[in-house]
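Tutorial, part two.
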Amino acid sequence: MQTMSTWEMVLLGVLALLVLLWAGPGVKAMLEQSRQAQNRDWAGLLVPLLLVIAFVILLIKLV
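Running the prediction step on this input gives:
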């Protein structure tokens, strides 16, 4: 595999910087909303997790 040339590395760095600048405001808003959100929705995490665990146990028992 060949190494990247200098212009490819510069182009990749510029592209990464543009992606960070483009996504920055959205990430900032998302972090602000997560700080203000209430932490009461544990059922949204626990129900699917318990269903997956039950499914894995069922598969193990069937073998």
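The two ends are 44 Å apart (CA to CA). In part three we will examine how such features are distributed along the chain.
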